[in-house]
Amino acid sequence: MEQPAPIPRPDGLRKRFTIPALAFGGILMAVMQTVVVPLLPDLPRLTGASAGAVSWTVTATLLSGAVLTPVLGRAGDMYGKRRVLMAALTLMTAGAVMCALSSDIAVLITARALQGAAASVVPLSISILRDELPPERRGSAVALMSSTVGIGAALGLPLAALVVQYADWHTMFWLTAALGALGVTAVWWAVRESPVRRPGRFDVLGALGLAAGLVCLLLGVSQGGQWGWSSARVLGLFAVAAAVLALWWVQQLRTERPLVDLRLVTRPRVGLSHVAALLTGFAFYANSLVTAQLVQAPKATGYGLGLSIVATGLCLLPGGVTMLLFSPLSARISAVRGPRVTLALGAAVIACGYAVRIADSRDLWMIILGATVVATGTTLAYSALPTLILHAVPAGQTASANGVNVLMRTIGQATSSAAVAAVLVHHTSPVGGAPVPTLHGYLIAFAIAGAVALAACAAALSIPRDGGPEDTRRARSGVRDTRDEALEGT
To answer: Which pLDDT score is estimated for 490?
Structure first.
């Protein structure tokens, strides 16, 4: 039977701060991923490294986050979600301290890889909310937790830009380190250890196989534009990724306690949710990437506004505020219509936002309006995805299943980054002797992202409803589901 961890339940005051503490951790994770962006143009000069080496301060975080999210999710289900959550926040904070203390590019890349562990904060927190909250409070809390990704990103960019502009760049990392320490303390004080566990032997071979496959896949995707999509290195990485992940799939099916329960993943309600997460991640990420570049383009292009990085961050800020305001609406729609409808609606709103971007990307107010509409759709979609997972998997597998869902978003974002870069590179014109993306290139990127958002909408509508044929079949079979639930207490 399940045994509660030997940590006392928080008293009334602490219990009231459980949701704010977890949400603060989610915002910190998004801020950490964003703060390095304003530094990228100056890091080669500040560190004496090449532009290619500097780009690894972003790539390393992406790769480690993709690998560690499902691994730490499974570890949370096994060993305790609060414990693993605190470990992830501690690694993020340690990485910030390392960045604050050094200007060596190798140390910075290593530190940023450590910070990638924070990508698991949101799925672990959502799993804790499922275990700790009554059903009537769970939907709004999960929606808020999901929206912290956009809120943190919207806050992180202007904050980092202000610090970089008016203070030494190391100050930014000292600030994030202090916030990280505050986040660890808040979780330690306000969050109790969840009693829901799915113990067993950790699948080390599965973790190594997944790590190798994902590193090869995402390295090829993220570096394809720089190395050449038809280069031997990129094609070789994709071939190795396909081979390793195929072997990993077979190994997971044969293992008694796998890292990722693939039989669960292949159920339509879970698998289609993961597909929708990948497509939504692609559609959402193009908004931030393209908006930042477009408004900073020089006025000589005929469409650019020549804004500073601080002003650029402020343009994205309304989207972050919108995500905070609309997260309760997402939970309300999910409660009345179901999360699949909320997900489909969110994807459709994202597509509408890109239609606005295509209609007018010259006037600042229209750019902000379009970006905010995309952010609104992202709030609805991202808030619905974990709710879909909560409804479809046993409680003992919540963290690992949400970790896989976040992984799919990450793959979608990496693919979006590569696709947008490829489009903009092939649509340039010389301005001041340097190639600059054309407005037509940006419009193509918007059209691609909008089409992917419509595909996400179709995937969402294909997800079976609660109580549909899949649930009937599972109820009749009985044996497997009973065994799945029983594993929570073994």
So the answer is: 37
